[in-house]
Amino acid sequence: MRTLRLSLLLAILAVGGLASAFEAPYPSGHRQRINGYTVLHLAGDGWELGSQHGYLAGRLVRQVLKDVILENNGAGDRYKPLIRGAMVMERYLPDEYRAELRALAKAADVKYEDLVALQLFGDVQRGQRCTSYAVYGPATKTGECIVGRNMDFWDHGAGKYGACIIHYTPADGIPFMTISWTGIINGWTAMNRYGIVCANNSSYGGNDSIHGLSTCFMVRKVVQYARTVEEGVRIVKNTPRACGTNLIIAGGNPPQAAIVEFDHEQVAVRWAKKGYVCAANSFRALGRPETTVTDDGDDFGADTDSETGFNSYYWLSRDELLAKLIRENYGRLDDTINLAAADGVPIRSINLHSSLLFPQRLAFRVSMSETPAADHPYRRYRMTERGIVSDE
User: Which residue segments constitute the domains of the chain, with CATH numbers given?
Assistant: First the structure.
């Protein structure tokens, strides 16, 4: 009987340990300065996450909102159309994200509609330019997965003071981090505790709509709920989608990687079969018969690059350049080779952040705040049970 009671007690403790595995040690949230960048640690349900965010960084949230929306993207005659479009997209946000935004708006003392527009203007107005790649297995020296990512966009000065790293321990889902700005709750370059990385690259030529989940909130949904790359792909397929996007999902154990190309109506998946995938702003598979897609990182054809406008038979677009650089360094890629910063990959005039992520180690490096980010020092971090810590 004593043995049985002990076994039951151990079983209860084991279940309790699993249930609390993702409980944060900072239930009220906190703000730190780590390696020169602001880091917010937030925990709880949607309302708690938003309240903590606003309490910890309300002044910065107000400044970002003023500079990006009120005085630029939504200035003058553009304000009402932007708000109308943002509030259409707001209907497609999960309840937990709407609660988080309402709490953040209240805590930061800003208008809810303006804050929603700050999250969604990239889809409502379009215009983002980014690059992403993932390498692993035979493409790397050790076989580990390495993800590179550039966010190229117009920040109206907000990145200088508002750039931050946010670590979430949500009441529902998986702890994750996102490289972001204060006031932005979705995802730009994100990684979760299972080592799943996700980032978005706006892509053009598909069927765009504001009736669906925004691109950046798709990133957040993937890292908050996917434990594998396959689960991330299913999330995209099963979620109402909005605007054309090349979404990279990579990492896991064993590592995998895919570019999920989608618009409002279609999804095409380019799985890495030679140990690498890469993407910029042109669709490579969407709209083509699935049997013709090689999914091997080389399937570029003669598309016209949306950034340069040049035919890729004669000029290399940014994703073609990445593929070329990966082939030239095939089998030798490691954490000393940063293809995200290579000449011609980031758009340096608007390169707001550049990062390397090592999902199997839960480590990452990022440069932000100064443009072009790729030309400035990358600071080193790790995700741990206690959140984000320095890896320097």
Answer: 125-157+194-385 (3.60.60.10)
Q: How far apart are CA 211 and CA 87, in angstroms?
A: 10
Is the distance from CB of 170 to CB of 185 less than 8 angstroms? no
Question: Which helix (H) or strand (E) covers residue 262, if one does?
Answer: strand 256-262
pLDDT category of residue 363 using cuts at 50, 70 and 90: very high
Q: What is the mean pLDDT of the chain?
A: 88
322-326 long-range contacts, CB within 8 A, separation 24+: 322/131, 322/133, 322/278, 322/280, 323/276, 323/278, 323/297, 323/298, 326/133, 326/135, 326/139, 326/276, 326/278, 326/297
Residue 136 CA from chain centroid, whole number: 19
Give 172's contacts (C-beta < 8 A, 6+ positions apart).
45, 96, 224
Cα distance between residue 191 and residue 318, in whole Å: 23
Q: How far is residue 125's CA from residue 139's CA, in Å, rounded to a whole number?
A: 37
Handedness of CA 360, 365, 369, 374 (dihedral sign): negative
Q: What is the pLDDT of residue 128?
A: 67
pTM of the model: 0.89
The owner of tokens 């005085």 is: 71
Q: Is the pLDDT of residue 231 over 90?
A: yes
| Rounded Cα distance, 312 and 318, in Å | 10
Q: Which DSSP state fits 303? A: P
Cα 20-178-236 angle, rounded to 5 deg: 85
pLDDT tens digits, 284-316: 999 765 433 444 444 443 333 333 333 333 367
Residue 27 has which token pair? 């239930």
